[in-house]
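Sat 14:20. Reprocessing the chain from the morning session after the first attempt stalled halfway. Input below, unchanged.
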Amino acid sequence: MADLKLDILVINTYNKLTLAVADISTYPDPVTSPSIEITPPGFPAISIVFVPDTLNVFNSTTLGITSGDDDLVPLPDGVYILTYSVSPAFENFVTKTIQRVDQLQEKFDNAFMKLDMMECDSAIKKQSKVDLNTIYFLIQGSIAAANNCAVDTSNTLYRQASLMLDSFIRNNCGCSGNNYIINFQ
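Finished this time. Tokens:
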């Protein structure tokens, strides 16, 4: 008979409104009192009934960010702490730390899509690619740090990526279409 081994996996929903958590545990017997405690950034921990052996999807209402009467709001980016447990909870639990970056990723995607790679001159195009690669690298570093419980490092990398992305967008990527005309004709 298999031993009890609790494990969860956060699944990307590609939706700012939802957080999906899959149960990938091994159960020798039926479980008792499955629950998950989720601590969203800037909000208190909330304990929620968890359905074993399936995908559980949470939103701003189920996470206690909005009330049932409010419209759903995007879940905040930042470090989330998830603890899945079954009875007796003091013995059987697993904790995961993740960095949610959906809002920052949407901003990155929008900046990337606005960058007209065919319009920029070669030097600016190369610099824009370097800038976007650096921002992407910082976002991935933030995720990796959170996955390894390095919360301070994760938050620092996230903030740096966000600042660089804001600067990149503010400067209009350096691509106006006029750079070649002004400087090279």
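Strands lie at 8-11, 19-23, 35-39, 46-49, 55-58, 78-85, 93-100.
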